[in-house]
Design brief:
By secondary structure, this protein is mainly α. It is built from one helix and no strands.
């Protein structure tokens, strides 16, 4: 029974690692594609408020 629980916990850790990796990759791609546009929009909003 203990061996089964250890294997199950290891699988969960691997799944979380894969999810975190996928989210990180998507985040880097999003920032690469849309980062400058977002920065320009935020700078324009900041200038309008000040």
């Amino acid at each position: 029974m203990k061996k089964f629980l250890r294997n199950d916990l290891g699988q969960g850790v691997v799944e979380y690692a894969l999810i975190i990796t996928l989210v990180s990759i998507v985040g880097v791609i999003w920032l690469t594609l849309f980062g400058q546009k977002s920065s320009n929009s935020l700078n324009s909003a900041s200038a309008a408020l000040s």
